[in-house]
Amino acid sequence: MAGSVNKVILIGNLGRDPEVRNTQSGSKIVNLTVATSDTWNDRQSGERRERTEWHRVVIFNERLGDVAERFLRKGRKVYLEGELRTRKWTDQSGQERYTTEVTIDRFRGELVLLDSNRGGDDNGGYESNSGSSSYGGGSRGGYNNNEGGGFGGGRSSSNQGSGSRGGGWDAPPDNDLDDEIPF
């Protein structure tokens, strides 16, 4: 169908550590569970309410899968871009079931770590700047699989582990901007 869009953007916290599987052909598949929460004040009682939605995320992209396997742990805050996909499967009792997931395909999607490395684990040479970790050179300074990626702002693949900072649009080369955006 021409003129339609299937795009999902999630900002949330991981509900558990990533589950990594390998196919028979050696491709990596990573399953994530991401929680998004909405809070509001109840008009009648005046008390604070919260609703949490759980999202299944499947990463088929090898590079993003490697990042997820190495750096994501339960509780980490992430930004994800993918598409919604429903698949049909048969359970052990022969009943047909449907599952809707956010999928990050081999040549699409984005994954950005939004919080600092809480566990004190080695972050593999990638720096954490003002509470967010970025990988690659996407349009948001995050790791995506769109080669060339938008307006810049991230690291190119040639200096990913060097610790140097990349400038965006008209940003100074040392990226010394303090532009915290509240989400």
Main features:
183 residues, two-stranded antiparallel ribbon, globular, five-stranded mixed β-barrel, mainly beta, Primosome_PriB/ssb
Structure overview:
By secondary structure, the protein is mostly beta strands. It has a domain at 8-113: Beta Barrel (OB fold (Dihydrolipoamide Acetyltransferase, E2P)). The chain is built from 1 helix and 10 strands, in the order E-E-E-E-H-E-E-E-E-E-E. The protein has one helix at residues 62-71, and strands at 8-14, 19-22, 28-41, 48-59, 77-90, 96-104, 110-113, 128-129, 132-133, 143-144. A hairpin with a 5-residue loop joins strand 2 (19-22) and strand 3. The two termini are 33 Å apart. Mean pLDDT is 75; it is low at 120-171. Residues 173-183 have a biased composition (Acidic residues). Keywords: DNA damage, DNA recombination, DNA repair, DNA replication, DNA-binding.
